[in-house]
Amino acid sequence: MPTFFSLLLRTTLAVCLGGFLWSYSGTAHAQSLTLAIAKVDRIKGSGGLPNRPNGLKTTDITRADCVANVIERFSLTVTGTVDSGRNLDVWASTGGDCTQITSRQNGTAGATCWQIAGNQTVRNGTIVVDIPAQTIASQLGNATKQPGVQTGSLDTCSSQPTVGASAINVYFLYGVPGNNSDSNVQQAINWDTKGPAGPTNVTAGDGDRVIVMKWSPQSSSGSDISGYTVYCAPKDGLDAAPPPVDAGDAGTHPECQDGGFTDGGVDDAGNPIPGQPIDGGCTQVPNVPDGGQPSDCPSPGLDAPIVRSVGSSVSDGTTVDGLTNGVEYACAVAAYDKGRNPGELSKAACAMPGPVKDFFWRYREAGGPAGGCALEGAPLTDGVMIGGATAAVLALVRRRRKGKRS
Asked: Would you indicate the residue range of the signal peptide (predicted)?
């Protein structure tokens, strides 16, 4: 017959063992749940579903995707035991381990993750989680992450700190809120909304209904450049160009007046031409910040009505055609990457298309007779005829200059 002490021992063991088994059972439920990402789709956001270049993955987000706020639809499969005391939260990071609660303590210096969805329903089978692009990168540029889900805005599309893609890891965390996760699955998002640096030395030359653009590629952008786009707009109606903002360059530079005449009023040696107004003189004026004069050619902007693309990373120029003669245009150039993300616009250059003044036009403008030597019909290979025509023009120009100076 069992004694009192033996009964007490058996009861104590039963209680302890039962408590252990209950505790273990709860942990086993959490650990037995498995998450897996079945697929990721892109669906329309507030701005529709923009067309994208070939070769991009579903998980690649471009600037156009961000502006349209497309939705990344994650389809997850859930297997195992679902615990009612646990839920599914979604976090994002560019390097931190979001499974650890210390990485999710928003508002503190050590937090590297930001929440992009919360309290998602968990059940066995397939569950779908929709997250807009602007929400995914809502705190990409924030040094200190804020608590709660931030929806983001158009400014989010410009928050990428450097040129080139940023890998955003999306964490689906299953567990007790405020604790380390019990189960998780991750998906990398290739976030690339910042285009390459702009080209330099941009010039615009005019022609008959065309503008010829030339530039120097930005070598520092390297392989990130896939091509260039020229943006043009009629100058009238554009905001005035701001002054240069480059730092430093104190001092002055000469600003000269020409006295109100067309030919300059001085000969090649700088001496006044008799009978002509003398030069108005020069005065020293302060330099603008970069040492030059502010440009009077305003930027056409990335929403310019006239756009021409050059699909080559080594291009250094192109022709913009179909323009109107007599209209002054402001044009600028931006490089773009494989996601067609436009980079920053170059400094603008202005030009006015017009009829091309060829040799014969200039000959007649100088006073040459029409027809006399049948210049327009002369073959280009006739050295005598072309040479004689050239001499005639030069002689005529000399006579006109002599008449001016006499």
From this structure: 1-30
Pair 331, 396 in one domain: no
Determine the Cα–Cα distance for residues 92 and 100; give it in Å rounded to an integer: 12
In this structure, the answer to whether residues 347 and 366 fall within a common structural domain is: no
The token pair that represents 212 in the structure block: 């010829």
- Same domain? For 261 and 393 the reply is no
- Short-list 153, 194, 166, 195, CA closest to 47: 153
Dist CA 170 CA 172 (whole Å): 7
15 occurs within a structural domain: no
Domain that residue 26 falls in? 22-191
pTM above 0.70, yes or no: no
pLDDT at 379 over 50: no
| Of 330, 308, 311, the residue nearest 319 (C-alpha) | 308
**Residues 276-307: tens digit of each pLDDT:** 444 445 666 665 554 344 468 999 998 899 99
| Ranges of H-type helices in 281-348 | none
What is the strand order of the sheet 71-79 is part of?
Answer: 34-43, 71-79, 125-132
Domain count, the chain: 3
Alpha helices by DSSP H, listed for 269-382, are 359-365
Q: Beta strands 349-351 and 317-320: pairing type?
A: unpaired
Task: Indicate if 86 and 208 belong to the same structural domain.
Answer: no
Same domain, 71 and 136: yes
Retrieve residue 91's tokens: 């976090």
The secondary element (H helix, E strand) that includes residue 202 is: strand 200-207
- Provide φ and ψ at 272, rounded to 5°: -60, 140
Q: Is residue 163 part of a domain?
A: yes
Percent of the chain beyond pLDDT 70? 65
Angle CA 315–317–322, to nearest 5: 125
Q: Which segments within 235-364 are labelled E, that is strand? A: 252-257, 281-286, 306-310, 317-320, 329-336, 349-351
Contact, 231 vs 301, CB < 8 A?
yes
Cβ–Cβ under 8 Å, residues 195 and 163 = yes
Query: Residue 210 is which amino acid?
Result: V
End residue of a domain, out of 351, 376, 396: 351
Determine the distance from the C-alpha atom of residue 230 to the mean position of all C-alpha atoms in its chain, rounded to a whole number: 14
Tokens of 182: 């019990």
* Helix and strand element counts for the chain (H, E): 5, 17
